[in-house]
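pls design
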């Protein structure tokens, strides 16, 4: 059943934390259609360490600045929900958002979901369950793929896999993102609930702010289990190559629709088309694919299927996040 069009309260976030510059369109309703803004803000969400994300995204914002003939600034929101609210408040016009937040931006504020990402040809991805204690969670011997270890069939690199093993998580410390994250919270927590674990009392939550932080929490022993998108270990392996073998993926959730790009509804249809075309064409170039891979492990941007996002909203509804 498609969820009702109500506001999700997965996190309460003040707009003040965003520190976004106001770039809303000029004009008012009485004066006829508002003019497009003379500069744009692109909101990024912290799927990895926030510190260098704006710099990492600079080739993307530079490309948009040149293609659109106006300055485009990148900013990193405090969390996923803050990016949605920034778009609703006119503080950001372009959002690179996870699937639930794409749905929210459209449902709450009428944003257009124009593009969704592909990763190595895939338009969906699983959340992964990872551990530093494979003897407890692995029913078979871990196998290596591309320098990383998997067990319980998770080396198939698609979900679901190994979900029988997640019952053993009960009582463990678990590194997880906030409730707005499909892979870092919603899908893994729903899987635990379906496995009969009380997610309020049956696990000890170790909150983290990004997917790479979940990997590091498991690697450093701060948590026995962690949730993240597949395969967030790649982010950490650049600096800590042993993570691929010290942190073992033992289960995969159901598949999740990929993240994508939303545009605020106060932009003209012409400008929205220019932005969508510029991003799609950029992703098809070698330079663009390399830049997008560095930002969000994206290999291509393709036309969106907004209806595909309903399953994520359904999952959030089942967890009471509305």
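designed seq:
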């Amino acid at each position: 059943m498609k969820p009702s069009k109500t506001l999700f309260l997965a996190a309460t976030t003040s707009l003040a934390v965003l520190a976004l510059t106001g770039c809303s369109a000029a004009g008012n309703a009485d004066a006829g259609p508002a003019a497009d803004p003379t500069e744009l803000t692109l909101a990024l969400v912290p799927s990895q360490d926030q510190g260098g994300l704006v710099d990492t995204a600079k080739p993307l914002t530079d490309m948009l600045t040149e293609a659109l003939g106006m300055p485009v600034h990148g900013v990193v929101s405090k969390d996923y929900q803050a990016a949605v609210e920034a778009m609703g408040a006119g503080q950001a016009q372009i959002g690179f958002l996870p699937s639930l937040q794409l749905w929210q931006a459209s449902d709450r504020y009428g944003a257009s979901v124009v593009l969704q990402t592909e990763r190595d040809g895939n338009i969906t991805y699983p959340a992964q369950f990872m551990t530093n204690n494979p003897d407890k969670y692995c029913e078979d011997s871990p196998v290596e793929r591309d320098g990383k270890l998997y067990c319980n069939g998770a080396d198939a690199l698609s979900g679901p896999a190994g979900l029988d093993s997640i019952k053993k998580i009960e009582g463990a410390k678990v590194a997880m993102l906030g409730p707005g994250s499909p892979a870092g919270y919603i899908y893994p927590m729903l899987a635990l609930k379906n496995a009969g674990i009380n997610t309020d009392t049956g696990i000890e939550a170790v909150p983290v702010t990004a997917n790479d932080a979940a990997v590091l929490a498991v690697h450093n022993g701060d948590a026995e289990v962690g949730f993240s998108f597949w395969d967030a270990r790649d982010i950490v392996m650049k600096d800590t190559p042993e993570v691929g073998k010290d942190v073992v993926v033992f289960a995969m959730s159901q598949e999740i629709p990929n993240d994508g790009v939303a545009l605020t509804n106060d932009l003209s249809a012409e400008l929205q088309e220019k932005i969508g075309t510029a991003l799609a064409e950029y992703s098809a170039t070698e330079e663009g694919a390399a830049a997008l891979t560095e930002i969000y492990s994206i290999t291509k941007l393709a036309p969106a299927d907004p209806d595909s996002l309903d399953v994520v909203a359904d999952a959030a509804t089942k967890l009471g996040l509305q």
